[in-house]
Amino acid sequence: MDSDSDLTPRNIREVEAESVALICCEALQLVGSEYARGYIQNWLSGDRISDRSAQKIFSAASAILKAGGGESASRESG
User: Fold this and answer.
1) What's the pTM?
2) What backbone phi and psi angles, to 5 degrees, belong to 58?
3) What is the average pLDDT across 24-32?
4) Integer Cα distance of 16 and 56 in angstroms
5) Would the CA dihedral through 38, 39, 42, 47 be positive or negative?
6) CA proximity to 12, closest of 41, 38, 44, 39
7) 4 lies in a domain?
8) How does the average pLDDT of the chain come out, rounded?
9) From the centroid of its chain, how far is CA 63?
């Protein structure tokens, strides 16, 4: 996964980060999804998420959810 740098436009960094948060909130049934959607739409300003950004978003969200799943699974078995 490519990392962001100062060269990545701020709107893209904001959209990617908030999209990861949105996916995690939805997957974990947490509050905040509506706020995240509005935040993403505001930063997109009518543009579309690129394929590259979508890959980064899903990869990061997957890593976070897997890491959290492993932690909760060990708590349940212990």
Assistant:
1) 0.80
2) -65, -35
3) 95
4) 8
5) negative
6) 44
7) no
8) 87
9) 10
Question: Which token pair is 49?
Answer: 């998420």
Question: Are 44 and 11 contacting, i.e. CB atoms less than 8 angstroms apart?
Answer: yes
Is 46 part of a structural domain of the chain? yes
Q: Return the SS3 of 78.
A: coil
Which has more pLDDT, 61 or 76?
A: 61
CA distance 72 to 15: 28
**With contact defined as beta carbons under 8 Å apart, do 22 and 33 qualify?**
yes
Domain count, the chain: 1
Structural domain of residue 38, as residue ranges? 10-77
Cβ–Cβ < 8 Å for 69, 24 = no
21 within 8 A of 36, measured Cβ to Cβ: yes
> Does residue 68 contact residue 20 with C-beta atoms inside 8 Å?
no
Residue with tokens 């997109």: 44
Is the pLDDT score of 74 beyond 50?
no
